[in-house]
């Protein structure tokens, strides 16, 4: 009984009983028809080569009967070892399940993160597109407003120019000229004019040219060809001024 207590595994117990009864593994194999390799595996407590626990239990029972060992005790040792293995396997399974669940959770979180990132990108894209559309509309509105403003401003400038021009014309028309001299050139001639004591540049006039000179105070004109120009003074025709190529000088207003 003391020996049984010291036996820790079914393999050691089977081997001890076989050797105690002077059986070899080949003897057991011949009696039980079990392969020596399986007998060696059982004595080594190596149960991996066996297809199932039922096969192991059957082999242990047959070997125990052959070597005249206590098959119930041998079975108890195996079941005890198998229970520990089962507990270890169960713990491994629990750990494996935990790892798998954790990995699934990580994958799910990654998918959620990627989905959220995609949604955020899409939202920002939509917001950006809307802002671009608003900017384009704003630019169009600004362009239209600018065009309207420019048109109004241009219209105001045109009106202002017209107003200034009309004022200028009105002011100009209000200017009282004492001398208005109009000349129509019929032959080539030169003229030298002085208006209000300010001498003008001498100029050459050609047939068909019409010239008007105005003065507030006085006007002096020197003509290089008296027969080449017809003059009217304040709307009154002066008649023939002289001969062709005759140089004359006229002063206005005329002295009474």
From TrEMBL:
Signal sequence region: none
Database matches in PROSITE patterns: HTH_CROC1
Presence of keyword Transmembrane: yes
Domain HTH cro/C1-type: 14-43
Keywords for the protein's UniProt record, in alphabetical order: Membrane, Transmembrane, Transmembrane helix
Origin: domain of life: Bacteria
Cited PANTHER family: CYTOSKELETON PROTEIN RODZ, PTHR34475
Protein's recorded name: Helix-turn-helix domain-containing protein
Source organism: Acididesulfobacter guangdongensis
């Amino acid at each position: 009984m003391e020996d049984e207590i010291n036996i820790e595994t079914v393999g050691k117990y089977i081997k001890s009983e076989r050797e105690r009864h002077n059986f070899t593994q080949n003897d057991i194999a011949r009696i039980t028809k079990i392969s020596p390799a399986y007998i060696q595996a059982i004595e080594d407590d190596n149960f991996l080569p066996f297809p199932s626990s039922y096969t192991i239990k059957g082999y242990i029972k047959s070997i125990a009967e052959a070597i005249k060992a206590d098959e119930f005790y041998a079975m108890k040792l195996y079941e005890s070892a198998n229970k520990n293995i089962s507990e270890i396997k169960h713990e491994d399974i629990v750990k494996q399940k935990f790892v798998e669940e954790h990995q699934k959770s990580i994958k799910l979180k990654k998918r959620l993160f990627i989905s959220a990132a995609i949604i955020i990108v899409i939202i920002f894209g939509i917001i950006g597109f809307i802002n671009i559309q608003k900017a384009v509309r704003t630019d169009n509105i600004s362009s239209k407003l600018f065009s309207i403003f420019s048109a109004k401003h241009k219209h105001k400038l045109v009106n202002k120019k017209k107003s200034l021009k009309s004022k200028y014309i009105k002011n100009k028309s209000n200017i009282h000229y004492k001398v208005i001299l109009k000349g129509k050139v019929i032959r080539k001639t030169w003229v030298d004019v002085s208006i209000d004591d300010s001498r003008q540049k001498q100029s050459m006039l050609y047939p068909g040219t019409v010239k008007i000179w105005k003065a507030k105070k006085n006007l002096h004109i020197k003509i290089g060809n008296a027969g080449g120009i017809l003059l009217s003074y304040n709307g009154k025709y002066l008649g023939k001024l002289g001969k062709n190529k005759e140089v004359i000088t006229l002063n206005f207003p005329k002295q009474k």
